[in-house]
């Protein structure tokens, strides 16, 4: 069973979120276990204080090393060593490739959620294996980031989703964005489902979807598109078709 422990000041909120929907059902079936731990429970003072003023001055407060360490130690003593990740805006930006790496290389993650002005560097030096960011922005705490990472990794664990195709066709898995999706009814507000998707011809549908993924990736994420390997005969044919169709469209307009 894949295990994820989240160290947080908001264990009830995080725990509730991680026990809903697909992840909740996967935990009921023992494919994964996600548990949130209240850091305040591991402080030694009566006020349950977990932060103090920063050395050197400055605004705000810093989370103290010892409550974090005691919480971390309880997790490792109880459930065994885990790959410890501090959710930090100074960390490496999280990608789908990282979700796959964390799923493949570890069976136990410990996610540390900071608050205020951050956490004591000494805890990072002693206990943290890597720092991860979910983007170039700052949040009021690490909980949202930790839930993002937990969700992205957990859904890749075998059994959590009904079939690997549920994530292998999605955006970012193979370096591309996903093709457009449609559901009933066939026409909504004058907009119709592309006829190819109602044809029943699975080979043609797969080809159409590949073409749409190429177009969408090129238009929306040129950085991803530049890294794609489209050298196969089939992809080269699709590229020629796209170019011709767009040229025809320009001529008509």
UniProtKB/TrEMBL annotation:
UniProt keyword Ligase, yes or no: no
Any one GO MF annotation of this record: tRNA (guanine(37)-N1)-methyltransferase activity
Top enzyme category: transferase
Any Pfam family matching the protein: tRNA_m1G_MT
Chief place of localization: cytoplasm
EC identifiers of the protein: 2.1.1.228
Complexes and interactors: Homodimer.
Record's function text: Specifically methylates guanosine-37 in various tRNAs.
Protein name (Swiss-Prot/TrEMBL): tRNA (guanine-N(1)-)-methyltransferase
């Amino acid at each position: 069973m894949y295990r994820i422990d989240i160290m947080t000041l908001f264990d009830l909120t995080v725990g509730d979120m991680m026990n809903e929907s697909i992840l909740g059902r996967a935990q009921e079936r023992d494919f994964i276990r996600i548990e949130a731990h209240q850091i305040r429970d591991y402080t030694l003072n009566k006020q349950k204080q977990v932060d103090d003023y920063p050395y050197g001055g400055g605004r705000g407060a810093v989370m103290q090393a010892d409550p974090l360490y005691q919480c971390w130690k309880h997790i490792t003593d109880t459930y065994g060593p885990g790959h410890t990740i501090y959710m930090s805006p100074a960390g490496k930006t999280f990608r789908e490739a990282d979700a796959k790496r964390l799923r493949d290389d570890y069976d136990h993650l410990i996610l540390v959620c900071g608050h205020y002005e951050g956490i004591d560097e000494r805890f990072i030096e002693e206990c943290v294996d890597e720092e991860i960011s979910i983007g170039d922005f700052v949040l009021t705490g690490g909980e949202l980031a930790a839930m993002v990472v937990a969700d992205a990794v957990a859904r890749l664990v075998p059994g959590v989703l009904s079939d690997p195709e549920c994530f292998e066709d999605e955006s970012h898995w193979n370096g591309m964005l996903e093709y457009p999706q449609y559901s009933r009814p066939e026409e909504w507000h004058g907009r119709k489902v592309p006829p190819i998707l109602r044809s029943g011809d699975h080979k043609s549908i797969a080809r159409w979807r590949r073409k749409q993924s190429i177009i969408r990736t090129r238009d929306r994420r040129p950085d991803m598109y530049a890294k794609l390997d489209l050298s196969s005969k089939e992809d080269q044919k699709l590229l020629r078709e796209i170019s011709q169709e767009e040229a025809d469209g320009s001529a008509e307009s």
